């Protein structure tokens, strides 16, 4: 399988028998066009409805490809634009979808929607969506920081009951959070046995995202920075 960076939190996975697109926002239009032309099935996963994770343009792809499957969080099921969409599944935290190619487990988020764990071809692939330790220590009160920390760690502990190891994790490393911007990512690789860590949600602070590399190495995790549309890595 190959993991291809589109933009922001958007990624494409190309496998021999299927493809998966996570949180398409924009970028990589030519890459998407080629993926839609493949005869293999495509799975389009959306973690939540923030416009930097969900572009309604993805709904038009059904007109170009008949073997396309959409997976959305339950909280988006009331959107008028999704009404009548074929081959759509809504997942809530703790729910899953499975067919003869892959399994998708939905976990929680500390913002909106869900995060996803995909199991396919013997690999486990995690896309965090907006799951992170979202606090701005430089601006927040101690109580706000504690609340954010508690909510995040609670979700990690919930996930640990079901997840033993992760081959590839796509996870936010967002410098806007200030001095503790890597805290959530470090807590994540500290809790799980992560083979490869791929940062996301970092644009345009590429160098800030790259600063997580030595932390990942400390936990025995390979760090792979995909920073330009089309950058890719073999899983």
Automatic annotation (TrEMBL):
Pfam families: Lactamase_B_3 (PF13483). SUPFAM superfamilies: Metallo-hydrolase/oxidoreductase. This is Metallo-beta-lactamase domain-containing protein.
């Amino acid at each position: 399988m190959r993991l291809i960076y589109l933009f922001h939190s958007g990624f494409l996975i190309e496998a021999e028998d299927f493809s998966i697109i996570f949180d398409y926002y924009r970028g990589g239009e030519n890459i998407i066009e080629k993926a839609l032309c493949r005869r293999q099935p495509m799975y389009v996963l959306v973690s939540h409805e923030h416009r930097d994770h969900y572009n309604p343009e993805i709904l038009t792809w059904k007109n170009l490809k008949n073997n396309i499957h959409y997976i959305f969080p339950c909280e988006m099921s009331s959107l008028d634009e999704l009404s009548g969409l074929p081959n759509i599944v809504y997942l809530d935290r703790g729910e899953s979808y499975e067919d003869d190619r892959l399994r998708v487990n939905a976990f929680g988020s500390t913002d909106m929607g869900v995060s996803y764990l995909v199991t396919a071809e013997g690999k486990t692939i995690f896309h965090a969506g907006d799951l992170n330790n979202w606090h701005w220590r430089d601006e927040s009160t101690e109580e706000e920081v504690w609340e954010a920390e508690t909510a995040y760690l609670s979700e990690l502990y919930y996930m640990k009951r079901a997840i033993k190891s992760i081959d590839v994790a796509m996870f936010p490393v967002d410098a806007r959070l200030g001095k503790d911007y890597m805290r959530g990512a470090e807590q994540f690789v500290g809790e799980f046995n992560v083979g490869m860590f791929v940062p996301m949600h970092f644009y345009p602070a590429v160098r800030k995202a790259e600063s997580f590399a030595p932390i990942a190495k400390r936990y025995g995790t390979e760090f792979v920075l995909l920073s330009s549309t089309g950058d890719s890595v073999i899983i």
